[in-house]
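help with this:

***
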Amino acid sequence: MSELAVRAGRPAAQGSLRAVLDELEDGDPETLLLVVARPAGTGDPAEGLLAAELTVAYGPRTGWAGPWRTQPRMLRQHSSDDVRDVVCAEATAEE
């Protein structure tokens, strides 16, 4: 996840971001969805990257169930090219 912090232009956030992700690893999908939804909607590139990375990390664990399927759709509309790239690279369904 250090790459995310550097790409977001905030290398100092790298350590604290890693600690948050370590705590979330075994988290409840509904709680994680709440964590993802807030930064996804701010329009801020760094927060959008966090939301995108969390979405592509945890969405598959839920089988892209319900609201997790909505997250990539919302993030594909984000103002940041980097955020859109992260989400668009993830397949949410087999074709």
